Amino acid sequence: MLKGAYRWTASLRFTLGSLIREGLHLKLHGFSAVLLMAFSFAAYAQSSVPVRLNVDLTDAPRKIIHARMTMPVHPGPMTLLYPKWIPGEHEPDGPITDLAGLVFTANGQQIPWVRDDVNMYAFHITVPQGVSTLDIKLDFLATAPPSGFSAGASTSASLALLSWNEVVLYPSGTKPSQVQVQPSIKFPEGWQFGTALTKTGEANGEVQFAAVPLNMLIDSPVLAGRYFKEIPLATDVTPKHYLDMAADGPEDLAIKPQLVDAFSKLVRETGVLYKSRHYNIYHFLVTLSDDVAHFGLEHHQSSDDRVGERTFIDDNLSYLEADLLPHEFTHSWNGKYRRPAGLNHDDYKDPMIGNLLWVYEGLTQYLGDVLAARSGIETDDQFRSSLAATAPPPWTPVPDAPGAICRTRRPPRKSFMTPVRSGTTGGATRIITPRAS
Ligand SMILES: [Zn+2]
Hints:
It is a single chain. The protein is α+β, with helices and mostly antiparallel strands. The protein has 2 domains: 16-176, Immunoglobulin-like; 227-432, Neutral Protease Domain 2 (Neutral Protease, domain 2), CATH 1.10.390. It is 21% helix and 29% strand. It is built from 8 helices and 24 strands. The chain has helices spanning 16-26, 33-43, 214-218, 257-274, 315-320, 324-333, 357-374, 380-390; strands at residues 51-56, 64-72, 76-81, 99-106, 109-111, 114-115, 122-127, 133-141, 155-156, 159-162, 170-171, 180-186, 192-195, 199-203, 206-209, 212-213, 222-225, 227-233, 240-247, 281-288, 295-298, 302-307, 405-409, 428-432. The strands form 5 sheets. Strands 1, 2, 4, 5, 8, 12, 14, 15 and 16 form a 9-stranded mixed sheet that branches.
């Protein structure tokens, strides 16, 4: 995760203890937690039939995203969850307040739902006898302001970044990695898209993707837009890497060849530095828009990189974001393929333990900065200037306080027209709660 000049990340272990705690939180109708979980397991029918998730982005320019799910179930009480703890954001910021229009049906009959008294991310239903398929309809109101992370503004009149966690429910008591999902998307006419998901076809105006586990789906956002360009990077390297750009206007896509060459060199430099490639494909999903939140969010086979509209056509703006792609790309190794135990998240309902965020984020920031210089995204002088802005003392010991982490507040990068000089800018240190901003 990178926000402005910082980057930070998130998880939880799935144990019987956590199951019971979740059950206690749900406190459904006075039944014991164990009984509740037994019911939840009973109602979701794990089978070779995947959950179908159809997303309609045609109203994204109006800031509404529609979704329909079809889920195999058994009769009985069932609890469905909306993802709460979002990987890479290190906090329980799943945008539950923007979920709307929730309707459950089966065999054409509407099924009433009740939100849990305590957990606002949990919805209780009773699947009627004779029902084997549950239909879910929901809307996501993409009306958030352009601030924060993935729950912030993600659409404009000409583009959209789809974060799957915003348009999905999953059965409580089942690990997301055990829920197979068959996704599809209906795009506005003329829009193109980029994603690490595998396209399998098109039918009825929808693009179909290969079924993947829910955790992989949520880790595979989709960038789409009217003004879109995909550029292969470092074509001599396997697996394949792509720079996908969606912008507010066609002129914003006129990226300079030198910058494309630098991004290709970034791919090659990671081969030299990390000596491994653990992914099947990698997509840099770059949103170039002044109407969306600006940050970076890492994924295993892609990164969600959101910057100003003119970033790739203005040398000064490019420099100010020079460390963004190298940082998020590095997270695929440090944070996704390998991650601190407390951040090894396997259920979005569970808290993430962030005591090793300094490895997840601190090391990634350093390596990303090194890669930005090695690849030529920034010059040696620019790298040294930004390093000088980061490095000066005072350093403050990490406090031994639950939930608190210490980090050096890095001053925003300065324009290369007025380079920061060593010793003229001091880093300020502050204590923060796990808010990655
Ligand atoms: Zn980060």
